[in-house]
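step 4 of 6: structure.
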Amino acid sequence: MGTENEDEFERELRQAFARRPAPPSLKRKLMERGVLKMKRAAPAERSFVPWQRLAASVAIAAVLAGGIEWHSLDQRRKEEAAREQVFLALRITSHALDQMNARLAAHHRGGQDSQY
Amino acid sequence: MAHNWQPDFEQLVDQHQSMVFSIALRMTGDRGLAEEIAQDVFMEMDRNLTRLESPAHACFWLRRVAVNRSADALRRRKVRGMDLWVEMEDVHGAQPEERSSPLSTRLEQLLATLPEAQRAALVLRYQEDLSPEEIAATLEAPLATVKSHLQRGLKLLRAKAQSHLKEFVRGN
């Protein structure tokens, strides 16, 4: 057999040995064994975990800071309201005492006038 | 080893399942066994996914593991290639659309009768179109050995084809 026949035979071999399509059941079985599903998510997890962690940390910090700020504002508002109430009570008391003093003074003056 | 490539397992399966299955099929001559081997190869790739450095490395790795796992399976079964073809083709027949031409089937049957090392070299040469150097790297064998396997395998296959496939030769 010469070189030409060899080439012809090798060409036939290449054609005969072309890749065959894999049976569809191959991929299905890999899915059933859980490998495909798991690996589908893996690269996304690997590349996004640091971002997710960072985003979650920032969100938690923001919520905590907001909560603390809101709490201190609320506290301040309550203190302000309490102070206002105390001042109002003091004003009312002072006003009442002033009125009482004025009446007493008037009464006292009336008593002195009737004596003379 | 630092490498930036992020292998996508499903994409690798889609891309290389035909190659892995065909290597296993031609090494064993048994569709059912070839499918099992292909599954095992991809399961093994799943476990070693982080070691794969590039698409070319993944392809190289899959070829090598497919050949090795096929050889392991043949050794486990301790069945000669021709027996497998005769015994298994009826049981694990291909779907009509997957069937090859009669000449291809006969050449594959003859291939299965060759010694394992020659068969592996011929499959990588004529199915995968690899150079002798690439085959040597895939099989982790000396280049001279690979060249010898290719030469002897081709000679033996040609001789078998001449005596067994006369009807095809006359038909052409």
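step 5 of 6: annotate
 - The CA atoms of residues 32 and 91 of chain B lie 9 Å apart.
 - Chain B has one domain: 9-171.
step 6 of 6: archive
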